Amino acid sequence: MPDKTFHVVQITGTRGEVTQPQWLARAELIHRQLRPQLPVDYAAKMRKVFEDGGEMCVAVVAERVVGVAVFREFENTHVGRRFYIDDLVTDESERSTGAGRSLMSYLEKLARDRGCPGLDLESGTHRNRAHRFYFREGLFITAFSFRKEFQ
Question: For 29-54, what is each residue's pLDDT tens digit?
Answer without folding.
Answer: 999 999 999 999 999 999 999 999 99
